[in-house]
Amino acid sequence: MRIFVTGGAGYIGSHTLVQLLGAGHDLCVLDNFSNSSLEALRRVRQLTNRDFALVEADIRDTATLTEAMSGFAPDAVVHFAGLKAVGESGEKPLLYYDNNVTGSANLLAAMDTAGCRRIVFSSSATVYGEAQYLPFDEDHPIAPTNPYGRTKAMVEEMIRDWTAATDGASAALLRYFNPVGAHESGRIGEDPRDIPNNLMPFIAQVAVGRRAKLSVFGDDYETRDGTGERDYIHVVDLAAAHSAALEYCARTEGCEAINVGTGRGITVMEMVAAYEEACGHAIAAEIAPRRPGDVASSYAATAKAARLLNWHAERGVDAMCESSWRWQSTNSEGYGEKA
Ligand code: NAD
Ligand code: UD1
User: Fold this and answer.
1) Domain locations along the chain
2) How far, in Å, CA of 110 to CA of 284, rounded?
3) Catalytic residue at 148?
């Protein structure tokens, strides 16, 4: 397949490129490098021994996007490009609506021009908001609690409407739970720009000595040990879900939202213990107040992914921590300078 990948230089994008190149697909990556580096792409080429087209551009630059898409003539698009920091989305909501929503509208218009009718979109479990029940299945009410989540919910609706209006169109809205870990080589991984907001990169930076200690946000939740419980999904399993979703879109028409998780919750303290095992030393952690907006537990119902995509997560928490540590310990400053 010829696949056009927006945001392919990012964390999930780079791992998915390895998967798709390994499967023999031809790729064109479009990225503005606002949160990624060329170095990640160089390493993807090295790992796979394959090349791909690269366009440095913003998805909001209609002319360049349309020209790149039409020139490449893809069979399908995988759409990762987006901003993802929940806190920042509250401070700069218009930036998030412009980048994520306007950018996605441009992308669908460029697909129309290029005659491309298949899309796999990076959505998020954050669209569900507070759990009315667990596990979250795809029919759970959509009620995001922050602007970032609302951009994802809006783009889902936009893609649903576009699919309904476009003959032969097919879309998979992948609702990721908590992606963590790295490629088993340790050559590519998650490289947050600032102080990490998310648990796993923070633990990794404490483990490697870049930060003194982890603050555990609350130990009085109604969970096994009182700390927050999440459905962490290995990024390599997540990458494989994209392959499966592309195959699904190639044989179906319509639009489906599909959870991508393991179905199993892991608490903060369980994750710390698993990381200590992986890195071989203790990780300093202290109990801190709850983080506003956090929920006790979140985990996925996985039956729909199994049924439609014939996909399930294969890697457990040990592989997540081992691969994260391999990446972090051999690249303590990530990729270094951004592009
Ligand atoms: P990332 O920031 O590492 O990757 C996003 C990529 O998109 C980056 O390379 C960035 O430079 C690029 N980009 C951003 N805006 C762009 C624009 N306007 N034009 C062109 N390129 C642009 O993030 P990630 O963790 O790899 O996430 C990928 C996608 O998955 C995002 O849409 C994110 O919202 C979604 N998602 C991520 C998570 C997570 O925890 N990482 C969870 C759920 C959903
Ligand atoms: C965050 C985002 C969510 C996004 C998801 C994707 C917020 C509020 N939500 O959710 O929109 O879809 O990532 O991965 O940012 N924790 C600590 N100490 C830390 C960091 C986290 O104890 O320094 C705890 C949290 O309280 C939570 C768990 O670790 O219980 C996971 O946190 P995090 O990695 O930020 O993910 P989410 O809260 O699920």
Assistant:
1) 2-181+232-263, 199-230+264-296+315-336
2) 49
3) yes
Numbers of helices and strands, H then E, in the chain = 12, 13
Q: Are 42 and 187 contacting, i.e. CB atoms less than 8 angstroms apart?
A: no
pLDDT at 338 over 60: no
d(CA 273, CA 282): 8
149 lines ligand 1 (CB under 6 A): no
Q: Tokens 């996007």 belong to which residue?
A: 65
Q: Which residues sit opposite 179 in a β-bridge?
A: 233
What does DSSP say about strands 229-230 and 266-267: parallel, antiparallel, or unpaired? antiparallel
Whether 82 is in the pocket of ligand 1, judged by its Cβ within 6 Å, is yes
Of the candidates 11, 96, 128, 148, the residue annotated as catalytic is: 148
16 lines ligand 1 (CB under 6 A): no
* CA distances for 205 relative to 115, 148, 202, 213, 333, angstroms: 44, 25, 5, 9, 9
**Best of 124, 177, 206, 217 to mutate for ligand 2, by most ligand atoms within 8 A of CB?**
217
The pLDDT of 111-124, averaged and rounded, is 98
Report the pLDDT value the prediction gives residue 339, as an integer from 0 to 100.
Answer: 42
Q: Which CATH class is domain 2-181+232-263?
A: alpha beta
pTM (2 d.p.) = 0.97
Q: For domain 199-230+264-296+315-336, which CATH number applies: 3.30.420.10, 3.40.30.10, 3.90.25.10, 3.60.40.10?
A: 3.90.25.10
pLDDT tens per residue across span 287-332: 999 998 898 999 999 999 999 999 999 999 999 999 999 999 999 8
